[in-house]
């Protein structure tokens, strides 16, 4: 027994003295089938019967000690740790992060812009905080025009000459004032109106304005350009019609309708049983507007048009409530991923 105790102490000392960081070398030397711990276990058979119980307990405790050293070596041994990484399948795909998607208004805006870009229109942008000249006066809106009414326009409290633009027509003026002709631009952007929010109206929405100014531009050019747009946007079967209308900045002015996408022109609730829905305003740029912006109205003519992106989107996707566009409900937004 005493001999066994001495052997255990000697082996314990040599385990403690084991200074290599190689867990596998340790395992082979001490714990392997021909290892020193195993060999010590074999000494049990030489222990006298009355000491067997105590000897067994000592050996068990020693075995736990020897194995603990192995576990701690494994944890710090970079060789073994590296081996663990190698065992993991590094080709497994990672966890997918939830991805956002483009807003339907952005998607439709991009689609509109790309259709006009194919016709040679360039994108122009202007500020959302405008002055009276660019939003109203230069566009031939007389001082007492109802669109200037406080009901419709958000004015900036610090300066009564400043306002949130009520339409993207203000960008026309900024481009014309640059004096570089011809002009062929498309102006997408956000506009603001002092409206009560409902299913059909909002205090902010989005428009795309178009402007083409050169020599000999005619109403026929306007019609053909918009006809191309409608066919690209809504399909070849959709019909268009122009109705005379009034805008201070165009003369003559028109509104363009398309045949109802829901009933195909037969009449339904969406088209109020007329078979037609209005999608934009347009006309030949008023000579006063050209002159206001320093363009010779005897030499140049042009057409302009403006449309609401929300309206186009609602028609195309049969959306009945304008508020859905600004509520950020992902159940609504997700439906447009990859569709437009
Ligand atoms: N600015 C008009 C609006 O907000 C839309 C519009 C109509 C723009 C006719 C135009 C146009 O350029 O020619 O309702």
Describe the protein:
This protein has helices spanning 2-17, 23-31, 36-41, 52-76, 78-87, 104-118, 132-135, 169-177, 219-234, 287-292, 309-317, 330-333; strands spanning 122-123, 129-131, 162-164, 183-192, 204-214, 240-247, 250-259, 276-285, 301-308. It has two domains: 2-86, no CATH class; 104-336, Bira Bifunctional Protein, Domain 2 (BirA Bifunctional Protein, domain 2), CATH 3.30.930.10. Helix 2 (23-31) packs antiparallel against helix 4 (52-76). The strands form two sheets. The chain has a seven-stranded mixed sheet, with helices on both faces. Helix content is 38%, strand content 19%. It has 340 residues and is of the alpha+beta class. 3,4-dihydroxyphenylalanine binds at residues 167, 169, 209, 247, 250, 281-283, 304-306.
Amino-to-carboxy terminus distance: 87 Å
Strand order of the largest sheet: 1-4-5-9-8-7-6
Class by SSE composition: alpha+beta
Bound molecules: 3,4-dihydroxyphenylalanine
The number of helices is 12
Beta strand %: 15-25%
Instruction: Tell me the CATH superfamily of the largest domain.
Output: Bira Bifunctional Protein, Domain 2
Number of domains: 2
Uncertain residue segments: none
CATH topology of the largest domain: BirA Bifunctional Protein, domain 2
The quaternary organization reads as: single chain
Q: What sort of overall outline do the alpha carbons produce when their principal axes are compared?
A: rod-shaped
Major sheet size, sense and barrel closure = 7 strands, mixed
Q: What is the top-level CATH class of the largest domain?
A: Alpha Beta
> Cα-atom Rg, whole angstroms?
41 Å
Average of the residue pLDDT scores: 91
H/E series: HHHHHHEEHEHEEHEEEHEHH
- Report the CATH architecture of the largest domain: 2-Layer Sandwich
* DSSP, total strands: 9
Helical proportion, percent range: 25-40%
């Amino acid at each position: 027994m005493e001999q066994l105790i001495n052997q255990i102490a000697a082996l314990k000392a040599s385990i403690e003295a084991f200074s290599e960081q190689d867990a596998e070398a340790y395992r082979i030397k001490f714990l392997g089938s021909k290892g020193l711990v195993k060999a010590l276990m074999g000494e049990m058979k030489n222990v006298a019967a009355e000491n067997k119980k105590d000897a067994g307990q000592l050996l068990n405790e020693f075995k736990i000690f020897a194995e603990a050293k192995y576990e701690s070596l494994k944890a710090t041994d970079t060789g073994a740790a590296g081996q663990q990484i190698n065992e993991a399948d590094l080709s497994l795909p990672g966890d997918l992060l939830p991805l956002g998607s483009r807003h339907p208004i952005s998607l439709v805006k991009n689609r509109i812009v790309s259709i006009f870009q194919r016709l040679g229109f360039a994108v122009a942008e202007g500020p959302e905080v405008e002055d009276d000249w660019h939003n109203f006066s230069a566009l031939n809106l007389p001082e007492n025009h109802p669109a200037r009414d406080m009901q419709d326009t958000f004015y900036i409290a610090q300066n009564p000459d400043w306002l949130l633009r009520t339409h993207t027509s203000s960008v026309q003026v900024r481009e014309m004032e640059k004096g570089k002709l011809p002009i062929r631009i498309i102006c997408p952007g956000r506009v603001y109106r002092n409206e009560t929010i409902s299913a059909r109206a909002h205090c902010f929405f989005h428009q795309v304005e178009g402007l083409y100014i050169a020599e000999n531009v005619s109403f026929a050019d306007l019609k053909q350009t918009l006809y191309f747009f409608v066919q690209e946007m809504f399909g070849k079967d959709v019909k268009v019609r122009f109705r005379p209308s009034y805008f201070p900045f165009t003369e003559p002015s028109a509104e363009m309708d398309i045949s109802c996408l829901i009933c195909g022109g037969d009449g339904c609730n969406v088209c109020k049983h007329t078979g037609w829905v209005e999608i934009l305003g347009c006309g030949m740029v008023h000579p006063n507007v050209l002159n206001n912006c320093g363009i010779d109205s005897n030499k140049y003519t042009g057409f302009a048009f403006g449309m609401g992106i929300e309206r186009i989107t609602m028609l195309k996707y049969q959306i009945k409530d304008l508020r859905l566009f600004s509520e950020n409900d992902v159940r609504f937004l997700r439906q447009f991923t990859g569709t437009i």
